[in-house]
């Protein structure tokens, strides 16, 4: 829709939006447009006359359960396209893992892409297995939750397959595993373990982090070691930890480079 704004405008002549306004007002043209919030604020809101001729309808992101229902509705199409069978457990896993590990994208697109990637993975693995066994019989590949986990691992770099296999054991004994590497620091270890357990149990709030902690203490007491141990237990590698040298942000206002400027922030030379 925002493409109408300014289309055909040359040296003050009417653009496509102004030409369509009378027809839209009289009902001779019936139009349904779709655009993002950013483009709407950037283009449509600037033209109040054009905005009045449309009724805004906000399309909200579906929930996890609604996404599962959507995936079940398109399941047959993907089965015919890839010539395989998709388990219902794989559909549930795609919705849950997409919501947990894939950020920056919305439901149901990210879950649908996971199912598509899992189908391609299962079909490729079936073909490789048939070639190794030198079998000519045609078998249908079956998409299972482990194929979805592999697709998530490729997208995010997080070893989701390993997390799913040992997740229950790791969660139950998370505090004990952290204590094996970090001696003492009982309060910090217990707080972190409880936050992770709440998140995995589904008691966390969508759109919010698992927890925000600020480890305070003298140099050498084990603050960084605890963060490394937590990264290893959750993501199977210390390399998943992002470290920032805060000595670069000690200047007045320099932290704005990291988290953005505060509202009504004024700077002087």
TrEMBL record:
<dbReference type="GO" id="GO:0005737">
    <property type="term" value="C:cytoplasm"/>
</dbReference>
<dbReference type="InterPro" id="IPR041546">
    <property type="entry name" value="ClpA/ClpB_AAA_lid"/>
</dbReference>
<dbReference type="InterPro" id="IPR018368">
    <property type="entry name" value="ClpA/B_CS1"/>
</dbReference>
<dbReference type="Pfam" id="PF07724">
    <property type="entry name" value="AAA_2"/>
</dbReference>
<dbReference type="InterPro" id="IPR003959">
    <property type="entry name" value="ATPase_AAA_core"/>
</dbReference>
<dbReference type="Pfam" id="PF17871">
    <property type="entry name" value="AAA_lid_9"/>
</dbReference>
<dbReference type="InterPro" id="IPR050130">
    <property type="entry name" value="ClpA_ClpB"/>
</dbReference>
<dbReference type="GO" id="GO:0016887">
    <property type="term" value="F:ATP hydrolysis activity"/>
</dbReference>
<dbReference type="InterPro" id="IPR001270">
    <property type="entry name" value="ClpA/B"/>
</dbReference>
<dbReference type="GO" id="GO:0005524">
    <property type="term" value="F:ATP binding"/>
</dbReference>
<feature type="domain" description="ClpA/ClpB AAA lid">
    <location>
        <begin position="64"/>
        <end position="146"/>
    </location>
</feature>
<dbReference type="InterPro" id="IPR027417">
    <property type="entry name" value="P-loop_NTPase"/>
</dbReference>
<feature type="domain" description="ATPase AAA-type core">
    <location>
        <begin position="208"/>
        <end position="263"/>
    </location>
</feature>
<keyword id="KW-0143">Chaperone</keyword>
<protein>
    <recommendedName>
        <fullName>ClpA/ClpB AAA lid domain-containing protein</fullName>
    </recommendedName>
</protein>
<keyword id="KW-0547">Nucleotide-binding</keyword>
<dbReference type="GO" id="GO:0034605">
    <property type="term" value="P:cellular response to heat"/>
</dbReference>
<keyword id="KW-0067">ATP-binding</keyword>
